[in-house]
Amino acid sequence: MLEVKGLRKVYSSGGREVEALRDLTFTVDNGDLVCLVGPSGCGKTTLLRCVSGLLMPTSGEVRVGGRPITGPPPGMAVVFQEYGRSLFPWMNVRDNVELPLKQKKVDRSRRRQLVDTALDAVGLSGAASAYPWQLSGGMQQRVAIARAVAYEPETLLMDEPFAAVDAQTRADLEDLVRSLWQRLEVTVLFVTHDIDEAVYLGRRVVMLSSSPTVVQDELVVDLPAERDQLRTRADPRFVELRTRVYEQIQLAKRAAAG
Amino acid sequence: MDVLKKIGSAVALPVLLFAGWFLLSDGSASFYAPPLRQILTAFADTWQPERLRADVAPSLLRLLAGFLVAALIGVGLGVAVGLNRRLRAVLEPVLEFFRAIPPPVLVPVIMLFAGIGDGMKVIVIVFGCVWPILLNTVEGVRAVDSVVLDTARAYGVTGPARLTRVILPSASPQIAAGLRQALSIAIILMVISEMFASSNGLGFAVVQFQRSFAIPEMWSGIILLGLLGFALSLVFRLAERWALRWYEGLRATRRRAG
Amino acid sequence: MTSARRGGNPARPGLAGLAGLLLIVELLPRLRLVNDRFLPPTSRIAAALADEVSTSTFWHSLGETLYAWAIGLVVAVVAGVLAGLVIGSVPLLRALTASTVEFLRPIPSVALIPLAVLLYGTQLGSTLLLVCYAAFWQVLVQVLYGVADVDPVAEETARSFRFSAWGRVRHVLWPTALPYVFTGFRLAASVALVLTVTAELVIGAPGLGKEIATAQNSDAVATMYALIVVTGALGVVINLLTRTGERRLLAWHQSVRGEVTV
User: The ABC transporter domain covers which part of the protein (chain A) (predicted)?
Assistant: First the structure.
């Protein structure tokens, strides 16, 4: 279980203080898929960096499986928004996926198997020896997802992973994430600014306010587990849910402006 | 056809210049600019195998030794300084000062410490070459992409692997730029240190020819130095292109993307 | 430089570093870790420097060095820019000269020292030959990069509006190449200083380099160090001036570009 309790982060630079996160509390149950959605500039990335242990919060804490996080925890994989910068351009696709496994001291044959399975799962078996920059944006993000999957994480954090890919690729990648989540039984925390994406993907949606950020509202997405880009998005219940999320976000924005 | 055209345009001017020099100088009675025919004969007569072994080999060995030691020290210290912000702030002006000293003035200083033997010449080359390598490494290490560093941390790529798989490859284009600058300084210092005080070496030989007014031989030495400079830079460029082929590809892709 | 915003004086740690260097150089010979005939303590070098700057010979030599540097640099920059613009803007010339440039550029300029000695002896000409040769390539190569960087759309726009050849050079080629020209100038300026001092040191042409050789031959070790410090300081000043100038120019250039594209 992933628990975020009273999380607060204040950046200070040159005597000026900026409160990015004010007071965030939410939990993600094991095996759940939770989408965090909020207006742009609401500190989503700061939150994710705190959860992944890359950034120490000013106060409050993040616990994974009951243990507080002080640095990047072992069973956690992160997919960054900036795929072009997160994949190492000096390594080919296979080496990129394999490097974290080498660090985990996974033995050679198991490594090979994990990399092959992961690349196969994202549909990139043929591109193992290509360099990331030889691939399209969507394919690069698939490599990043394969790297996360091969790592065999218990928790998968995704930071607006599809913000920079085109709409059609995005739909494919969303379905990929859903199917991987169902198959691998990982806990997924998915950060996005796209309301439709949050409702389509998530089993729960946590809405954030504008900065300084608090949890605005939460809802359970009671859509059938089998989702489909055409039918799910046309489902009246889907429309209802996204309207609710939309209203909350607008409310949050207005509160911030007023 | 295209290839022929390329070869043709690459060869045309050198052939023309060479032929021009040959023909125009053929009747030359000038003491300082003897006919090229005479210089070429001198070249063949002068640079016999034993002469190459006695004068060229020591020069090249000193050059390589100095360059390699400078590369090791420069990259090693550069990584240490680049990774430590405080150290960098303290040392930067000192390093800039050392880089700004015209390297050849180090020859008399190092002669004080190390006499006039091989050691002196190697130390001179090390001392002159190390600054551009060091400063470029510092710059390269400092500029490693923050997403790259986050990714490495999130996936547990720490310790030696962080250095060898992430930081050094990421800084390598900049390090190569430093090495390239250092190589031309190394050649200059090789020649200068031999002109100052030596009993063998290319620089020594060329100065001897000049002092004994063996003009065609002097010219042949200048030509040999030129060929050497060209050959070394060619070897370096090939090695660089091989080692940084990922970087060339990355840059080409970015340029195409605009 | 980038930490300047973080409050406090950003130069302070750097000054501490320089002070540390001076202290180490003072202590090494005083603690007998280094023979003071090889490395005199800071205080003695400083005293020698004070002596030097009170002599007219020093200022005369400094003047000669700067004079040779400036003349060589100007000749190299003018020649490099003209050659670069002409070669760069005529594709045929570019293709024909590429291999020759690639061959001549890495030839170490110090290989020309014997030739310079024969032709000009210990006069200014020797220094100029080396300085011009070394600095010319720095400028030429940068200008060639710059001309290659001309945006084909801009070039076609100029053509479609029937700009004259001169107009295209003036309004398209030159503005694009300008930042590269300045980079070439900056590189050439420091290379020119290195070669000026080298020529003086090795050949004995008048200037600071010759004074260093003289100090070395007369065993005036502190004076030799003092003069080396002066050449280093000269290098730092030249770097700072050209870098600041370049940054100003590039800032202006990019802001103009930004306005055009928005």
Answer: 2-235
* Lowest mean pLDDT across A221-230, B195-204, C141-150: B195-204
Residues of C with CB below 8 A from B6's CB?
95
Sign, CA dihedral B187-B192-B193-B197, equals: positive
pLDDT at C95: 85
Burial of B6-43, coded b for 16+ CB within 10 Å and e otherwise, reads eeebbeebeeeeeeeeeeebeeeeeeebbbbebbeebb
What is the C-alpha radius of gyration for chain C, rounded to an integer number of angstroms?
Answer: 23
Residue A193, SS3 per DSSP? coil
Average of per-residue pLDDT across C104-118: 85
User: What is the reported pLDDT for B116?
Assistant: 79
Residue (of B60, B46, B101, B42) closest to B191 by Cα position: B60
Q: Are B98 and B92 in contact (CB under 8 A)?
A: no
**pLDDT of C4 above 70:** no
Strands (E), chain B: none
Q: Which member of C38, C105, C119 has the closest CB to residue B113? A: C38
In sequence order, which residues have a C-beta less than 8 Å from that of residue C101 and are 6 or more positions away? C137, C140, C141, C144
Tell me the residue type at B69. Answer: V
- Domain chopping of chain B, boundaries: 32-257
CA-to-CA distance for B225 and C10, rounded, in angstroms? 45
Low-confidence ranges of chain A (pLDDT < 50): none
* Topology of the domain comprising B32-257: MetI-like fold (1.10.3720)
CB B109 within 8 A of CB C225: yes
Q: Are A76 and B253 inside 8 Å of each other by CB?
A: no
Q: What is the pLDDT of residues B208-234, one digit of tens each?
A: 888 888 888 988 998 898 888 889 988
Q: Which residues contact C34 (CB under 8 A, 6 or more apart)?
A: C28
User: How many whole angstroms separate alpha carbon B58 and alpha carbon A185?
Assistant: 66
Report residue A193: phi and psi, to 5°. -105, 0
The ranges assigned to domains in chain A are 1-75+156-163+180-258, 81-152
Q: A1-75+156-163+180-258: which CATH topology?
A: Rossmann fold (3.40.50)
What is the model's pLDDT at position B258?
54
Main-chain phi, psi angles of A34, to 5 degrees: -110, 130
pLDDT over 70 at C262, yes or no: no
A103/B154 touch (CB, cutoff 8 Å), yes or no: no
Half-sphere exposure of A90 (CA within 13 A, CB side): 16
Q: What is the pLDDT of residues B25-64, one digit of tens each?
A: 887 778 878 888 888 898 888 888 888 888 899 899 999 9
Whether B244 and B173 have beta carbons less than 8 Å apart is answered as yes
Euclidean distance between CA atoms C109 and C71, whole angstroms: 17
C110, B192 contact by CB (below 8 A): yes
Main-chain dihedrals φ then ψ at residue B46, nearest 5 degrees: -75, -50
How confident is residue B170, by pLDDT bands cut at 50, 70 and 90? very high
Of the candidates C246, C253, C226, the residue with the CA atom closest to the CA atom of residue C40: C226
Sole residue written with tokens 């202290």: C23
How close C208 comes to chain B (CA, Å)?
A: 10
Report how far residue C77's alpha carbon sits from residue C132's, in angstroms, rounded to the nearest whole number.
9
Burial environment of residue C117 by CB neighbours within 10 A (0 to 12, 13 to 18, 19 or more): buried
Residue, of C196 and C257, whose pLDDT is higher: C196
Residues 142-181 of B with CB under 8 A from A: 145, 147-148, 150-151, 153-158, 161, 165-166, 169-170, 172
Domains and CATH numbers, chain C: 42-261 (1.10.3720.10)
- Which of B31, B84, B101 is the best mutation test for C, with the most CBs of C within 10 A? B101
